[in-house]
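Thread title: Can someone regenerate the structure for this chain?

I was given the following input by a collaborator and told the matching structure tokens would be attached. They weren't. Posting the sequence so someone can regenerate them.
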Amino acid sequence: MGTKRALLGVIGVGALALAWSQPAEAALFSQIGVVGGPVLLSCDTGLAIDNSSTAGNCNIAIWQFTATQLEFTLGPKTVDGYSLSAYSMVANLPGTATLAKAADTKTSFVNNSATADLFVDFGAYSFTLPVSPDTFSTAQTANWATNTANASSSFTGVACTGDVHTFAACTGATSTPPVIVNPVPNTTTAFASNGPDVAFVHGATFSMAGREILHEGIGSDGSFTATETVTPAAVPEPASMVLLGTGLLGLAARARRRRA
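Best answer:
Regenerated them for you:
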């Protein structure tokens, strides 16, 4: 009887572990400025679901909160000689136990008069996926409508433990896609590059942060995206757990009959 109870306890613990599925919950942040200079545009949504608590000077134009994601969109902006038609960020909130994702989209980034490259930091924090090990990956795209010089886009993504609100403060698993370079006079090709999958060990909460460096000649006009994803390690399927439990019960019954 004691053996059977012990086996049933093991099965129960396994079933509870399988049933536990902590959702991913995230808030968003972004900082934009020129390389070597200060942050000129800053956003941080906090953990609230309305625009009233947003920190920074970004002045969110569109704010969307659904059962599956948090998203904000900025209207037209000018940052130190660059003009931006639209900028948006999205993260899954509460998401699922199988994916944590943060992404940004920059539409029609035009260099009107700037001589320095632009940096765009973005990320999401307060993710609560099941405890690691997980896999961290990154990707970026670039598409120039006009290219007056050898334009390029580089991106580095980092995943780290805890709630981190800036790219500089996030240290951990790093994934860097190949730099995208668009030589003159090519202006019509859409480019994409993927970073390597990297093992990511984290605590109860974690963050993702990325930095894009956009290099454009005066008069160049490009649109860009960057994505960061954390995918948890595979867990046993329900059917596998049922088969395991059935097998353990069968072994217990067989051992009892032998003792009898």
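DSSP finds two helices and 17 strands in the chain.
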